[in-house]
Structures are given as structure tokens and as C-alpha cells.
Design a protein that fits this description.
The complex is a heterodimer of chains A (about 750) and B (about 325).
Chain A (H helix, E strand, L loop, with lengths): L1 E4 L5 E4 L8 H30 L2 H21 L2 H22 L4 H6 L1 H12 L10 H8 L1 H12 L3 H18 L4 H22 L7 H17 L21 H5 L5 E3 L10 E7 L5 E6 L1 E2 L3 E3 L5 E2 L11 E10 L12 E5 L6 E3 L5 E3 L8 E9 L3 H5 L7 H7 L8 H10 L6 H15 L1 E2 L10 H7 L3 E2 L1 H14 L4 E7 L3 E2 L4 E5 L3 E9 L3 E5 L4 H19 L6 H21 L14 H31 L3 H21 L1 H12 L7 H19 L9 H11 L8 H14 L6 H16 L5 H9 L1
Parallel strand pairs in A: 14-15
Antiparallel strand pairs in A: 1-2, 3-7, 4-9, 4-18, 5-16, 6-7, 8-11, 9-13, 10-13, 11-12, 16-19, 17-18, 19-20
Chain B lengths: L1 H6 L14 H18 L4 H12 L4 E5 L5 H11 L4 E5 L6 H5 E6 L4 E6 L6 E5 L6 H13 L1 E4 L2 E4 L5 E7 L11 H4 L4 E3 L6 H11 L14 H12 L5 H17 L6 H17 L7 H12 L13 H10 L8
Parallel strand pairs in B: 1-8, 1-9, 2-5, 5-8
Antiparallel strand pairs in B: 3-4, 6-7
Helix pairs in contact in B: 2-3, 2-4, 3-11, 9-11, 10-11, 10-13, 11-12, 12-13
Classes of the chains: A alpha+beta (about 750), B alpha/beta (about 325).
GO molecular function, one term (chain B): ATP binding
Protein name (chain B): AAA family ATPase
Pfam families (chain B): AAA_3, AAA_lid_2
Chain lengths: ~750, ~325
């Protein structure tokens, strides 16, 4: 048993809580925390390499860095090691510049641009947007890992947290480190410093409770206050489309296109296009697939009418696009070659050839685009061969690491009869259109959306169809990309197409040598139209024929169908049997009604799922809650609430007996609490005897003058300093203190002592 | 008598070496103090300190102005315990052999005979020790530390008990050789008597003018008993919490002064505390014993940052701030 006497003189008793633990334990804990901090950002980097490849290399370089750090920790002084880390980092980045084609000379010459790039990264440009993201990751990882592990092994935990923290902070700023990774990294850093201090100062386990409280505070704060931007910034959606709409999902952010669960359709008119013929109005091209989103790599540059026309036969289409709402994209038929109008000054073009506005278009903005329509015949496509240019294979064959062999096997099965890339594409397109149903009401994918859609799901919407087809074709080594935009929309009498939010769409472009990018449509058109018409119809009903009426809605059907048929023809899908290319409006209506009738129960299902989602607690959440609870307990312990409560009770009750010495001591402690309550607590440097003597001098009467008090003190001294007391003596002390305390129970005690007199 | 002491081997005492009971020693000390205070008026605390020093096998340094009764204190204690009392007046021309003794050629036996110096006494008063040159000082101080003196290559045991009470004149600093810090450390305690309070001084005059009471002072005990009492003190229990407390106190002085208390100081502190416990009738040391002894035992072993006279303030701080019970921090 030991006694703590705080600076304020309060005293509490705990049982061997100050048993100092070997600093070895704290060292292990501190080193563990450094590893956790390192792991937190390596995990973020691994998320990048999982998508672009190079996970093994990443782990290898980090592992080598740790081993080298271990060796260096024994041999090399800190200054040398720090210099080595910076040198390694410099060499690494020089290598990165070589690989990314800039060259070291170029890098040095373009220092400004590098600074600008760094600023862009630090202000939220995701790592995945980088073309050489894999190389960058591998170059970035080892230096901080080496330095922090080296410093940790040298026992400089606070310093070791700096490189790890800086690395993590950078990834937080790029938006790649999610809340969980950041939190774990921060906890690791905190733990490293905390346990390191405990090791250095020979702390005890009892002091680790402060650390537990800090952990809890960090978690609670990070969950309740958002200080750092996590994930991409607020999405710039087309015309303020609400979250949860198909449109919002497809174009959730200019550089990224998400794959969500259930989506709604927005009937709002986005823009109108004046053109000779309908087309899909493309707004985005994406090359990098993460498993749950599409990312556009590379940077945009100002558009200067210098986009090379597709190599194959071409046909020009002039379109006049007028924005009807605020618009964050510039829809245009593929492949836009030139832009005219006011907006041309702030038009940018992505590395992939898609135009987009640097700032969102205002309502009423209008521009003229001339596009080169690629429309080769199936025969041409069949004979296009596989002589792909390097810049095409570099970007458009990417698949995330860990794509299952099952996915590849199924794809191979589906394309078993296909011999050319074109036949592959057609086979996949036909398979998806025929085997999967169209539905906007789907569970969000847990793992790889393409894989899950192909292997497990029975229905989905255009995002799923297009994603699956892209990844399947890539699995067959056909360069493919995922594109987003709008379908042709609803034609009006004066040659205009009115495009609404619900026309948002995603499809696929496949590259053919000498021809260029050719669009393919894996989404079953008629089913899609049904669903979309319903949405429009509902909206029109709501508006009670405000501007459109029922017949216009039917017209829209026809237009979309026509368009879809065009698409079919263009990609040479000769499957009129499977898919009616021209719909009978009557059938359509009937089916639509059926669909409407069947729509109700589905809603209930969603509710149940929502509730389940609320109830279920993820493992991370459970762990966080556990840490918070431990922190709470430690905090209660630290503030001494338990000790105080126990003491208050302990004054009146001795509790379980142990050996006589301890009992005599505990009896005295109880007496001390009584004295502290009646007079004042014992001062820090005051011995028990001095305390009683001082109290006796300060007061005329009371506890300090009670002979029993002196006896308890004497027995206490004998127990602690005089080699011990026997059982009987200890019991006498206990009995004396029992009496003394009971005489002083508020109210009851007073009455009792009065009654006794 | 000095011859007898000189040939007295410590082994010979072992028969009578049985420790006394604590109560008897406590009574003895009461008698002793009462006896001494017949002569020394108003310095009860100092008397107690000297008695604990003797019982705790330590030496005492009295620092004060002349004429406050330093010599009388030493003499009356020596008389009370029926021990030999020797006095050395330290002067600038005093030689080491004047303290330890010399071999003198005996014409009759034609042999050298050892003529013991004043250090061969049970209670030795080194008067104005700081007026002698360091070489002579160190002769006495070596005797204090070793319990023996070496003259002409022959080592001679000093009698037991052997306690030095040295006085230091604090009024003429430019005519003195200050004791080196390391040698100060060999004194268990450094005391100041100070002037007596006015009423006490009146009592003192009443007693001493005319017939001095020291002439009629009778011993209350003998040398044998004193040796046995010292054994009792040596066996007083010092439990771990007390040792830890002493260590913390000493540690505090080391942290808060230029030179803190040496381990020798810690040992002295606990020995003095043992003696005090016995005086209080206890067979074990409680922290209060340590606290009572700490100011006189520790202060002169501390050199403060400000290089003030001694570490009294530091010891006071230590007593106030260092927790008596073990703390967690």
C-alpha cells in the first residue's frame, strides 16, 4: 500500500499502483506506436498502389528502410542519418522525375512548376490523379519510415514522430488519408511520445492513464470536430445536383466519378443542345479505377483548339450548347475539336481530350463545339488489329491489384468465341445487356464494384454496366475507358435536344488503332428508358403539366430509344432479337405501370436496411468506443473520483482485513481522513506525529485531543516503523477508529453521541 | 588512568558489551541531561544533541562566540558519564604531535616511551579548532574518523567511547584557518549554543557566581554503561520507510544546492535519529526523529548556490517539502 499526497494536501490510497514497470515495456509500447504511425501512412500509400500496382515494391522499400534504420541506429549519428534520409529522398524523387519523363534537368529547370504541383497536392489533389502515382508512392515512403524508425530506436520518440507525422499530414492534405488512417496515425504518434516519455522518466503504469485519457480526447475530438479536410473537397456537381442522384454520383467531382448505391433521378433541365443529329453528350473521361470510384489522372491545360482529330474516318458535328442551370461540365459529342463562344477563354482540356470549364458555366452561357464523330463500320473495327500506341496502353489497361481470377475467368468465358478486340467488346456488351437488369435501387458495392456486379449482382445502373465492361475489356487487354455524360435528351421541334438531370449516363469507349475511341453501350437501353421515364413522368405529374405534357413524355421515350438504337447500330450490335430496338409505346406503357406497381414494396425494403445500417457497428467503431471507454475510466481514476468515493466510505468502514500491519496503517489513514475533514489535511512535509501535535495546538478540543487518536498513531508508527504489530493491536486500532468515525457520522453520529451523554 | 585506557582493548569489553534495554538508556539519558543542566542553563536542546551524538558515535562541532559555555558543556557531560575528559587548546603554533602524543626517550629504561597526547580521552574538547593550522587540525580529524592514531609508524587505538567536541570561534575570521568542507563532514553535528535568554542568564549567574556547580557535579553513570548504551542505540530498528525518507531528504539537498549531503551525512543522520529514538524510549526510528536531527546533522554539509553560510535554509525547505510518506510522483 502506498500513499499519494498531492500538492494540495489531499491524500489517497492505492494498492501498489506505483509499482514501476520496467522501462523495457514502455520502450516496446513506444516503438510499437511509432510503427503504428508509420503503418498509418503506408496504408494510405498502399491504397494507391493497390489501384495502380506496386504494393510489393512499396512494402519492400519500407521494409528495407526499417532494416537500414535498425542498422543505422547502432552505427550512425543522428545528423548523418538525417542527411542520409534526405539524400535518399532526393535520389528517389530524382528517379521519379526521370520515370515521369520530366528528367532531373527538367525538374531543376521547372522548379516553380514542382512547387506549384506540390502546392496542388497539398491543397487536395489526390495522389491518384498523378500519372506516375505508383512511382511517387514508392519514392515517397522510405525516407520518413527510415527516419522515424531510426530516431525511435535511438530513443528520440518526439523527434521520430515528426517525419511520420509530416508524411501523414501531407497525405491528409492531398485528401488521400481518410479519417480512420489519420486518427490511427495521430494516436500512434501520441502513444510514441507518451510512452517514450514514460520510458525516459521511469514512469509507472499508473501514469499511463493520462495517455489513455489523451487517446480518448483525440478520438472524441476527431469524431466530433472536423479540422482537417478528409476525402475530396465538396463536389462540383452539374447544376447543384443533390447528393444521391444518378447525376451527382456520376459526376461527384470533376476528377473523380463515384460508384454509389441507390440513386434518384433529377428531372431538372440541365442544358439544351442544338445539333443536326442526336449524340451522347460526353462530359468526363476516366482512366484509373480504384474499385469503388473512377479517377482521372493527369492535369488539365487550357484548351487551344489543338486536340488532334481521331486518326480514322471522321465526320464533323456542330453543336450549340446552352446551359440551363449552373453547369460544372461542358457536354459535347466525342471528340470535341474546337470551341467557340465566350466560354472559350476558360475552357480546359484534360489529358484524355475532354473539355471542361475552369469555372462552372452560368445559366444561359452558350458555346459552339465542333466534334469529330468516330463511326467506323464493324468490319473496319474487326480488322483494326491490336497495334496500340504506348500512351494508350499505359493509361487504359489499369486494373486494381487483387482483381480476382474468378472475374478474369468469367470474362474469358464470356469472350471465349471472340477473336478480335472488337468481338470481345461486342460479346461483353451483349452479355451485360442481356444478363443484368436495369435498376437504380442497388446496394452500394463493398469491394470491387466491377467484380461484384459481374459475379454477384443481378441488377444495376449505367455506372455498374460501364464499369464492369471497362474492367472486363481491360482484363482481355483491350484499352478501354469509362466515360460519363448525358444521353441525347428529348428532341424538340426546332432541332434542339433538351437534356435533363435524369439523362445522366455512363458508358464505355474502346480504343481501336487507326480509328480512335469508339463508344460502346453496355446498359440495356429499353429498361433504362423505362425507369427514367417513370421518374420524368412522376415529376411531370407533380408539376401538373406545367410545361410538358404526357405526350411530350412519350416523345422523349421515342427520342431516347432512337438514340439508343443509333448507338446499337454504330457499335454494330446485331441483336434485334434479344433487344427490341424500336419500342412499342403501348408495351412501354404497360411495362411502366407494372414497374410502378412493383415499386412500393421495394421502398419498405430500403427502410429496413437503413435501420439495420444504423444498428450495426463496424469493427473500427467498436474499437474507438473501447478506447474512449478506457480513456473515461482512466480519467475517472486520474481525477481520483473512485478513490474519493472509496475514501468517503472507507472512513466509516474498515473493509476486509489483511495483515495486522496493514490494518493498523489503514486505521490510521481513516483517522487521518477524519482529521482532515474536521481540521485540515496533513501537509506535505509533515510527519504523522507533527500533524497531530499541530492540530492539538491549533484546537482546544476534538479529535486531535482524543487519547484514542494518539493510541492509533502510536500503533501505526509501530506497524510501519517498529517492525510490526500483532493482530490484537491492529484490531484495537480498527475498533478505535470505527468508534471515532461513527461518532462523527453527520446527523446520526451527533444524535448518538448526544444520546450517550 | 590514561595508561589503563591505552591498554584497554575493545575485545576486553565484549563481556560487558550486552546492550541495555531501551528504557534503561532512556532513563539514563534523562538523568544525564538533568545532571548537565545543573551546570548548563538554558541549552537543554543542545545538551540533548550532544548526548545523542555521543550515543550515536558521532562528534560535535560547536560554533559560537566565546564564553557561552561550550567548554563547560563538554566538561559537564564528560563528568556526568564518568569519562576521561581532555582538552586541547588549538593555537596557531600547535603541532600535530601536541594532539596525538610523542615518543619520549626514557633515561632510566633507555627506551622510547609513548607519551599519549590529549586525544587519548573519552571526551576530547578541541577548543577553537579553527585557530590551528590545517596540519594540526587534520591530526585530530583523522583520529575522529579512524578511531586510532599513528605515531612513529605505530598505530594506537583510541579509548571507547571516543567523542570529540570541537569548538569554532566565529568572531575572528581573519585569524583562523577555516575547516575544509571535507573535514566538516566528519562532524556528526554542528551546533550553536547562542546567548542564553535573559531569565536564564539570571539563573546562570545565580548558580555560578560563587561556587561553580561543576566542582560538585557527580557522575550519573559510568563508562561501561555508556558503551552498552551505545550498543543499544546501534540496534535501534530503522525500517525501510524511514531509510527512504532520509534518502529523499538528502536527495533534495543534492538537487537544490551546489554541494549536497554526502552518504556519510546520511549515515550520520540515521545514527543520530537512532539515538533520539532511544532517548524517546523507542526501539525504532520514526520520521520525527529524522526530522529533529536533520537541521543539525545536515546543514553544515551543504554548500548553497548563493554560498551562504550553511545550508540551514535548504534543510528547512527539504523538511517542509519532502513528503514523509512515500509518494507516487
Amino acid at each position: 500500500m502506498s500513499t499519494e499526497s498531492g500538492s494540495d494536501g489531499t491524500r489517497s490510497v492505492s494498492v501498489d499502483a506505483d509499482a514501476t514497470v520496467g522501462s523495457e515495456l514502455f520502450r516496446v509500447l513506444a516503438l510499437g506506436c511509432v510503427l503504428i504511425a508509420t503503418a498509418s501512412y503506408v496504408t494510405v500509400l498502399r491504397e494507391v498502389t493497390r489501384i495502380v500496382g506496386g504494393t510489393q515494391s512499396l512494402f519492400l522499400v519500407v521494409g528495407v528502410a526499417l532494416v537500414v534504420a535498425t542498422v543505422f541506429a547502432r552505427l550512425v549519428r543522428p545528423r548523418t542519418a538525417t542527411a542520409a534520409a534526405f539524400a535518399a529522398g532526393a535520389v528517389g524523387f530524382a528517379y521519379y522525375f526521370e520515370v515521369s519523363g520530366v528528367g532531373i534537368g527538367g525538374a531543376l529547370a521547372g522548379l516553380e512548376e514542382i512547387v506549384a504541383d506540390t502546392v496542388r497536392l497539398a491543397t487536395g489533389l489526390n495522389l491518384l490523379r498523378m500519372i506516375e502515382a505508383g512511382t511517387w508512392t514508392i519514392v515517397f515512403a522510405p525516407a520518413p519510415a527510415f527516419l522515424s524508425w531510426y530516431l525511435a530506436l535511438r530513443g528520440r520518440y518526439a523527434a521520430s514522430v515528426v517525419p511520420a507525422g509530416a508524411a501523414l499530414l501531407f497525405l491528409v492534405l492531398t485528401g488521400d488519408a481518410g479519417t480512420t488512417a489519420t486518427l490511427i496515425g495521430a494516436l500512434g504518434a501520441l502513444g510514441a511520445v507518451g510512452f517514450g516519455e514514460l520510458e525516459r522518466r521511469g514512469g509507472s503504469i499508473a501514469q499511463a492513464d493520462v495517455l489513455a485519457v489523451l487517446f480518448a480526447i483525440v478520438i472524441v475530438l476527431s469524431l466530433s470536430v472536423t479540422i482537417v479536410p478528409s476525402g475530396p473537397a465538396a463536389p462540383v456537381t452539374a447544376g447543384g445536383g443533390d447528393d444521391g442522384t444518378l447525376e451527382g454520383t456520376i459526376d461527384s467531382a470533376s476528377e473523380q466519378s463515384g460508384i454509389a448505391g441507390t440513386v434518384d433521378l433529377s428531372p431538372e433541365v440541365r442544358f439544351t443542345v442544338e445539333a443536326d443529329r442526336p449524340s451522347y453528350w460526353r462530359t468526363g473521361i476516366y482512366d484509373r479505377y480504384t474499385g469503388d470510384a473512377w479517377v482521372r489522372t493527369g492535369q488539365d491545360r487550357p484548351f487551344e483548339d489543338d486536340v488532334p482529330p481521331p486518326p480514322g474516318s471522321e465526320e464533323r458535328l456542330r453543336q450549340t450548347v446552352t446551359a440551363e442551370t449552373e453547369l460544372g461540365v461542358m457536354p459535347a459529342a466525342a471528340q470535341p475539336l474546337s470551341v467557340e463562344g465566350d466560354v472559350v477563354d476558360y475552357t480546359e482540356v484534360s489529358m484524355h481530350g475532354q473539355i471542361r470549364p475552369a469555372t462552372p458555366l452560368a445559366e444561359g452561357d452558350s458555346y459552339v463545339v465542333e466534334s469529330a464523330i468516330v463511326d467506323p463500320s464493324p468490319e473496319e473495327l474487326r480488322n483494326a488489329g491490336t497495334d496500340y500506341p504506348e500512351e494508350v496502353t499505359e493509361y487504359y489497361l489499369q486494373t486494381p491489384e487483387g482483381t480476382s481470377s474468378e472475374f478474369e475467368a468469367r470474362t474469358a468465358e464470356i469472350t471465349a468465341d471472340a477473336e478480335t478486340p472488337y468481338e470481345n467488346a461486342v460479346a461483353i456488351e451483349r452479355y451485360l445487356r442481356s444478363s443484368k437488369e436495369y435498376s437504380l435501387d442497388v446496394e452500394p458495392p463493398e469491394e470491387d464494384a466491377a467484380e461484384q456486379f459481374l459475379l454477384e449482382m443481378d441488377e444495376g445502373y449505367c455506372v455498374y454496366f460501364a464499369t464492369a465492361m471497362t474492367q472486363m475489356l481491360r482484363a482481355e487487354d483491350v484499352p478501354t475507358r469509362y466515360v460519363t455524360g448525358y444521353t441525347a435528351g428529348e428532341p424538340t421541334d426546332d432541332g434542339e435536344y433538351v437534356v435533363r438531370g435524369l439523362d445522366a449516363h455512363a458508358w464505355v469507349e474502346v480504343y481501336f488503332p487507326e480509328k480512335g475511341w469508339v463508344a460502346f453501350e453496355p446498359t440495356p437501353g429499353d429498361e433504362r428508358d423505362e425507369v427514367h421515364d417513370e421518374a420524368l413522368e412522376e415529376e411531370l405529374d407533380d408539376e401538373a403539366g406545367d410545361e410538358d405534357d404526357q405526350s411530350d413524355g412519350d416523345d422523349a421515350d421515342d427520342g431516347a430509344d432512337d438514340e439508343a438504337s443509333d448507338e446499337d447500330d454504330r457499335s454494330g450490335v446485331d441483336d434485334a432479337d434479344d433487344e427490341p430496338s424500336v419500342d412499342d409505346p403501348a408495351d412501354d406503357l404497360i411495362e411502366r405501370n407494372d414497374a410502378l406497381a412493383g415499386g412500393e414494396p421495394a421502398d419498405d425494403g430500403i427502410d429496413v436496411r437503413d435501420i439495420l445500417a444504423l444498428v450495426s457497428v463496424t469493427r473500427e467503431t467498436a474499437a474507438m468506443i473501447a478506447v474512449v471507454l478506457i480513456g473515461l475510466v482512466a480519467g475517472v481514476h486520474r481525477t481520483g473520483a473512485v478513490a474519493r468515493a472509496r475514501r468517503t466510505l472507507g472512513v466509516y468502514r474498515h473493509g476486509r482485513r489483511s495483515d495486522p500491519d496493514r490494518d493498523a496503517e489503514r486505521a490510521f489513514r481513516r483517522l487521518e481522513w477524519l482529521l482532515a475533514r474536521e481540521h485540515r489535511p496533513r501537509r506535505r512535509g509533515e510527519s504523522a506525529r507533527e500533524y497531530l501535535r499541530a492540530l492539538a495546538a491549533e484546537t482546544d478540543d476534538g479529535l486531535a485531543h482524543d487519547p484514542r487518536t494518539a493510541a492509533v498513531l502510536e500503533r501505526y508508527e509501530r506497524a510501519v516503523y517498529g517492525g510490526g504489530v500483532d493482530r490484537e493491536t491492529a484490531d484495537e486500532s480498527i475498533a478505535a477508529v470505527d468508534d471515532l468515525s461513527r461518532e462523527r457520522v453527520p446527523l446520526v453520529g451527533r444524535r448518538r453521541s448526544e444520546g450517550a451523554e | 588512568m590514561s595508561d589503563a585506557k591505552q591498554t584497554h582493548e575493545p575485545d576486553a569489553e565484549s563481556a560487558a558489551d550486552e546492550p541495555l534495554s531501551v528504557d534503561r538508556v532512556a532513563d539514563l539519558c534523562d538523568d544525564l541531561a538533568a545532571n548537565v543542566s545543573r551546570v548548563i542553563v538554558g541549552h537543554d536542546e543542545a545538551i540533548e544533541h550532544v548526548v545523542t551524538a555521543i550515543l550515536g558515535r558521532g562528534h560535535v562541532l560547536l560554533e559560537d562566540v566565546p564564553g557561552v559555555g561550550k567548554t563547560m558543556l563538554a566538561r559537564s557531560i564528560a563528568t556526568s558519564v564518568d569519562c576521561t575528559f581532555r582538552r586541547v587548546q588549538f593555537t596557531p603554533d600547535l603541532l600535530p604531535s601536541d594532539v596525538t602524543g610523542v615518543n619520549v626517550f626514557n633515561q632510566k629504561t633507555r627506551e622510547f616511551e609513548f607519551q599519549p597526547g590529549p586525544v587519548f580521552g573519552n571526551i576530547v574538547l578541541g577548543d577553537e579548532i579553527n585557530r590551528a593550522p590545517p596540519k594540526t587540525q587534520s591530526a585530530l580529524l583523522e583520529a575522529m574518523e579512524e578511531g586510532q592514531v599513528t605515531v612513529d609508524g605505530e598505530t594506537r587505538e583510541l579509548p571507547a567511547p571516543f567523542t570529540v567536541i570541537a569548538t569554532q570561534n566565529a568572531v575572528e575570521p581573519n585569524r583562523t584557518y577555516d575547516l575544509p568542507f571535507a573535514e566538516l563532514d566528519r562532524f556528526m553535528k554542528k551546533l550553536r549554543l547562542g546567548y542564553p535568554a535573559p531569565n536564564e542568564e539570571a539563573k546562570l549567574l545565580e548558580r555560578t557566581v560563587g561556587h561553580h556547580p561543576i566542582e560538585s557535579l557527580d557522575p550519573v553513570t559510568d563508562r561501561e554503561t555508556l558503551v552498552r548504551a551505545r550498543e543499544t542505540v546501534a540496534e535501534v530498528r530503522v525500517e525501510e520507510p524511514v531509510r527512504a525518507y532520509a534518502t529523499r531528504l538528502v536527495g533534495y539537498t543534492r538537487d537544490n544546492a551546489q554541494v549536497g549531503v554526502s552518504p556519510r551525512g546520511t549515515i550520520a543522520l540515521l545514527r543520530a535519529a537512532q539515538a533520539r529514538a532511544v532517548i524517546d524510549g523507542r526501539g525504532y526510528v520514526v520520521p520525527d526523529d529524522v526530522k529533529a536531527e536533520a537541521p543539525v546533522v545536515l546543514s553544515h554539509r551543504i554548500r548553497t548556490h548563493a554560498d551562504a553560510q550553511d545550508g540551514t535554509d535548504v534543510v528547512e525547505d527539504a523538511l517542509e517539502r519532502v513528503s514523509v510518506d512515500r509518494t507516487r510522483g
